[in-house]
Amino acid sequence: FLFVPAVEVKIEVVIPEKERSKEEMSPNGKASPLIYKVNGTARHYHLEEHPIASNPYHNPKDVVEASVCHVKDLENGQMREVDLGCGKALLIKESGEFHAVGHKCPHYGAPLVKGVLSKGRVRCPWHGACFNIGTGDIEDFPGLDSLPRFQVKIEKDKVYIRASKQALQTQRRTKMMAKCISLSNYNLSSTNVLIIGAGAAGLVCAETLRQEGFSDRIVMCTMDRHLPYDRPKLSKSMDSHPEQIALRPKEFFRSYDIEVLTEMQVAAVDIKNKIAVFKDGFKMEYNKLLIATGNTPKALSCKGKEVENVFNIRTPEDANRVVKLATSKNVVIVGASFLGMEVAAYLAERAHSVSLVELEEVPFKKFFGERVGRAVMKMFESNRVKFYMQTEVSELREQEGKLKEVVLKSGKVLRADVCVVGVGAVPATGFLKQSGINIDSKGFVVVNKMMQTNIPGVFAAGDAVTFPLSLRNNKKVNVPHWQMAHMHGRIAALNMLAHGMEISTVPYLWTAMFGKSIRYAGHGEGFDDVVIQGDLDELKFVAFYTKSDEVVAVASMNYDPIVSKVAEVLAAGRTIRKRDHCWFFLSFRTGDMSWLTGKGS
C-alpha cells in the first residue's frame, strides 16, 4: 500500500492485495479449493502455497531500509534510480504519490529510469514491456516476470525505502500461480486445456491460466525437442545453448503442473469430438484448445536445394551448427529479412566472407523504407558484408555432397561453405485444413479480438493468426512479433476463463546488428511516406511512417526512448498527425510530456 502524509518516504517489498488475498481465502491459511468440470466430472484443486509469506520480512537479516531523497526532490511525473547499498530501486512520483519498484526490466535488464512513465505504468525503453507502478505487475510484453514492489514511507520530509535484499538483487517477481494437488487422477489421453505450440504465445497462455487460479490439467505440445526458449536469440546470439535461452527452467514446469510434450506433432484436429490426433497416432481429448504453432520457414526451390550445409535457422542446434561451420569459412545468406540480416551481422566477424543475396533493391525497403534501408546497408558494407541485390539463387553446387558454390541468376558464382536461407515463412497450419477452423487464403487462422476462432472453445495466437488491430481501425493483420505473441497468449487465456478481454496493444519490435538496435512501434503496412529526423549517416535518427495524414509507425536508432514514447501515445488512443511530427520530435528532445498527459490530437 502507499500513503503520503505531510513528510518522509520508505520502500519495502509487499505482496499485492490481489495476491495476498489468495493466501487468506480460508481460515487454515490455504486457499479454498477451485472447482472445474472436465468431461462432466468436477475436480477440486488448491492454489499452491506461495513461498513468500504474507509478511515479506519474516527474516530481518534480509531487510534493508534507507533514506533516498527529500520529498521535494521529485516532481510529479519524475523517476529516479536510488541506491539502497545492496541494490537499487526505481522511485516514482505520480499524482502526488510515491511508488517504488525494481529498477531493471526483467526481460533483458534495461534501466527503467530511462523509460517512459505514463498514467500509472512505466514502459521499458528497449523493447516496450510495461509495468504497473503500484503493483509491479507486467501489463505489456515481452518478458514473463513482473517487477518487485517495494514499500514507500515518508518521515520528516525524507523518502525511505524498505526492501528485501533478495528482491533488490533479483529485480524480478513471478506472479503467484495455482497448481494441481495431484495429476494421478487424470486420464493421460484427456486434458482440460491443450496448447499446440510451445513458443511465447503458448507459454504465456499457460502461465496466465495458472496466475488466474486455473487448477486443472494443462498440456503443451511442441515439435521441438526443447522446453520453450527465447527464439529471437537464435539469430542475434547464435552460439547460445538451449539451457542459456530457456524461458523457464524445468523445475518451473514441474512446480506449476504445466506438462510439455516435446517432439510431438499434431496431424489433425477433430473439432466435433474435441480430439487432437498426433502424427504417431496418439489421440488427446481437450476442453479448450489454443493453436500457437507459429510459422514454417520457406525453403529454396532451386536446383541443388538438398545439398548439405544449407540451413533454415529454426532451432538452437541449427544456429550452433551454422556458427561452427561458418568460422573462417565462406557464408552465403539468401534473403535480407530480419533473420538474414541478423545472421549476417553475427557471422561477419567470424566468417572469412559473408555474402547476402536479395531480390529487392534495398534491405528492409518494405518495412523501414528505402532511406533507412540504405543506411543499414551501408553499415553492413562497412563491416565486410557483400550484397548481391535484385537477383536470386538459381543453383546450389556441391562437392562430395557438401555445398561448394551458390550460382545466382545474374550469372555470378559465389564460393560458399555454408548457406543460410531467410526468405520468409508460411503459417504452420496445414494440419487444420480439413478441421472446419476458419483459415484465410494465406493459411493464417482468423480470430477476433478475444483470440477466438469461429469454433467455440478453440483459440489461436502468435505468428499463425490474423486479428483485428485496433490501432488500424480493426483491420485484420498478421503481426509476427515476439511481443505480440506474448499478448496473444495472455488474451487467449483470459478468454478461456470467460473474462471477455479484448486485445488493444501496440505492436513493438526490435532488431540488433553490430551492437546497434532499431526499435519499432506501430503498424506501418501500406505507409506512403517516411519523415526522417536526425542523421541517417550517423545512424542516429527517428523515422515516422505516415499513411495519408497520420503517423502509423515509428522507428529509431540511438534515440531511446522515443519509440516507447510514441507507443504510449498510440496506446492511449491518440493520433500523431504528419504535420505534428517535428513538434513531437522537439518535445521529446526537450522533455515535454504533454503528448502523454492528454494534450495533442
TrEMBL record:
<keyword id="KW-0249">Electron transport</keyword>
<dbReference type="GO" id="GO:0097194">
    <property type="term" value="P:execution phase of apoptosis"/>
</dbReference>
<keyword id="KW-0274">FAD</keyword>
<dbReference type="InterPro" id="IPR028202">
    <property type="entry name" value="Reductase_C"/>
</dbReference>
<dbReference type="InterPro" id="IPR036922">
    <property type="entry name" value="Rieske_2Fe-2S_sf"/>
</dbReference>
<keyword id="KW-0285">Flavoprotein</keyword>
<keyword id="KW-0560">Oxidoreductase</keyword>
<keyword id="KW-0053">Apoptosis</keyword>
<dbReference type="InterPro" id="IPR036188">
    <property type="entry name" value="FAD/NAD-bd_sf"/>
</dbReference>
<dbReference type="InterPro" id="IPR050446">
    <property type="entry name" value="FAD-oxidoreductase/Apoptosis"/>
</dbReference>
<keyword id="KW-0496">Mitochondrion</keyword>
<dbReference type="GO" id="GO:0016651">
    <property type="term" value="F:oxidoreductase activity, acting on NAD(P)H"/>
</dbReference>
<comment type="similarity">
    <text>Belongs to the FAD-dependent oxidoreductase family.</text>
</comment>
<dbReference type="GO" id="GO:0051537">
    <property type="term" value="F:2 iron, 2 sulfur cluster binding"/>
</dbReference>
<feature type="domain" description="Rieske">
    <location>
        <begin position="66"/>
        <end position="161"/>
    </location>
</feature>
<dbReference type="InterPro" id="IPR016156">
    <property type="entry name" value="FAD/NAD-linked_Rdtase_dimer_sf"/>
</dbReference>
<comment type="function">
    <text>Induces apoptosis through a caspase dependent pathway. Reduces mitochondrial membrane potential.</text>
</comment>
<dbReference type="Pfam" id="PF14759">
    <property type="entry name" value="Reductase_C"/>
</dbReference>
<dbReference type="Pfam" id="PF00355">
    <property type="entry name" value="Rieske"/>
</dbReference>
<keyword id="KW-0001">2Fe-2S</keyword>
<dbReference type="Pfam" id="PF07992">
    <property type="entry name" value="Pyr_redox_2"/>
</dbReference>
<keyword id="KW-0479">Metal-binding</keyword>
<keyword id="KW-0411">Iron-sulfur</keyword>
<dbReference type="InterPro" id="IPR017941">
    <property type="entry name" value="Rieske_2Fe-2S"/>
</dbReference>
<keyword id="KW-0408">Iron</keyword>
<dbReference type="InterPro" id="IPR023753">
    <property type="entry name" value="FAD/NAD-binding_dom"/>
</dbReference>
<dbReference type="GO" id="GO:0046872">
    <property type="term" value="F:metal ion binding"/>
</dbReference>
<protein>
    <recommendedName>
        <fullName>Apoptosis-inducing factor 3</fullName>
    </recommendedName>
</protein>
<keyword id="KW-0813">Transport</keyword>
<dbReference type="GO" id="GO:0005739">
    <property type="term" value="C:mitochondrion"/>
</dbReference>
